[in-house]
Design a protein that fits this description.
The structure is a homodimer. Chain A contains five helices and ten strands; from the N terminus they run E-H-E-E-H-E-E-E-H-E-E-E-H-H-E. By secondary structure, chain A is of the alpha+beta class. In chain A, strand 2 (about 45) and strand 3 (about 55-65) form a beta hairpin. In chain A, helix 1 (about 25-40) packs across helix 2 (about 70-80) and helix 3 packs antiparallel against helix 4 (about 195-205). The first copy, chain A, starts with a strand and ends with a strand.
């Protein structure tokens, strides 16, 4: 038995998310099916981030224990031949016995893309949140910087998700502006359900002038979900990478 | 009555092409429907390039005669509100009376994208031809350069299209290499049916070492379709722009 680490890219548009479900195309389900065909028997796959329906990945990481003797490159080729074209295995690495993609992750990096322009290109529809109205970038940048550090993110957790410990440490929270594209990069040791999208929804309210950048600080001390802004749409979000020790 | 010039961007993935057809989503059909709603009566739209099913556009140009009094910006906004998100009106301009998008076009520029890498990103599936095997760039570049000038392109016209005069003048024919992406740019005063895709299919055979770059010259003197390479897939092709006097 060996443990493998898979790095994956996927377009979430037509996926129900990472997690296997009774109905619909999940990354976990499709990957387990492909691996089972290579292995000749059932294989369980664990993912570092349980991305929601519509969320994309540039560097999701998954772990699995397999018996098959294929080298890493052959395994990657075989899986890509079996997987649909919206999911690609970028690489396969040998991992230490017992490696677990989620439990062993030290931090994760997400990206959120906003197109702030009157017209959205048909070619980026599936990967940006299109906001045609005016957005002030400088207040958004200032509010995003306040997210860095250790805070209680209760106000940015989707209601009913029931996680008790809502403190997280964010090592990077940065808005960049490139042309009409606003890109938000966030890295941290853990993320609550819908946390990045709730942060983005709130930062956009700052950009629209409906909240002050400073108001962000009060939200980061365990405020309630109703105090923060709406959840931004899933299709602007990417799981960029997962960092391990 | 006024004549307007519309510049359009579209993702051809789920379109049957420019031309209105009995069945399916055509750009012409959807644009005529949207314009008819703004105008309050039927409107005929002419396109500069009759792109095939699956072919994309970054700068298709269309002309129409309308009576409505909306200014250009209002008209663009109204049309974008009525059109599906895979078709966008980038701009509307007032044109001289009698302007015709196709007959008045001086030249058109197309682009073809090839991803030459073991794995194709899920995010570019719909806009590149993925070729995993080895391709030699330098012979492709040399062969592409031979296309520039005035030639008989009969060998690159889809069989049965029945156009008698097959001489065309190409002002630019260039392969660029950026990372793993091969980009072919071609401008000319006119294009036969499937001509760009047949050129690309032939240039790829050069890249695969199945033809010499020099063999391109013989094909450009009115050879038969069977002498040239296969037609490259539609989804790598973009109509980039249309130039007028």
């Amino acid at each position: 038995m060996r443990t493998i680490k898979l790095t994956l890219e996927y377009d979430g548009t037509h996926l129900v998310g990472w997690q296997r479900q009774a109905e619909g195309r999940s990354v976990q389900g499709l990957l387990e099916e492909a691996l089972a065909r290579v292995e000749g028997g059932p294989v369980a796959v664990e993912g570092a981030g349980r991305t929601d329906a519509g969320v994309h990945a540039l560097g999701q990481v998954a772990s699995a224990r397999v018996e098959c003797g294929h080298d890493a490159a052959t395994l990657a080729r075989a899986l890509n031949a079996l997987l649909p074209s919206d999911i690609r295995v970028i690489r396969v690495d040998e991992a230490a016995v017992g490696f677990h993609a989620r439990f062993d992750a030290r931090s994760k990096t997400y990206r959120y893309q906003i197109r702030n322009a009157p017209v959205a290109s048909p070619f980026e529809r599936a990967v940006v949140w299109h906001i045609p109205g005016p957005l002030s970038f400088e207040p958004m940048r200032a509010a995003a910087a306040l997210v860095q550090g250790t805070h209680d993110f209760r106000a940015f957790q989707s209601t009913g998700s029931g996680v008790m410990r809502t403190e997280r440490t964010i090592s990077r929270s940065e808005f960049r502006h490139t042309g009409g594209l606003l890109v938000y990069d966030i890295s941290g040791n853990g993320f609550l359900r819908h946390m990045v999208r709730a942060l983005v929804g709130t930062l956009v309210e700052v950009g629209r002038g409906r909240r002050s950048p400073e108001s962000m600080a009060a939200l980061l001390t365990g405020a309630s979900r109703a105090d923060a802004g709406p959840t931004a749409p899933a299709h602007g979000l990417f799981l960029v990478s997962v960092e391990y020790y």
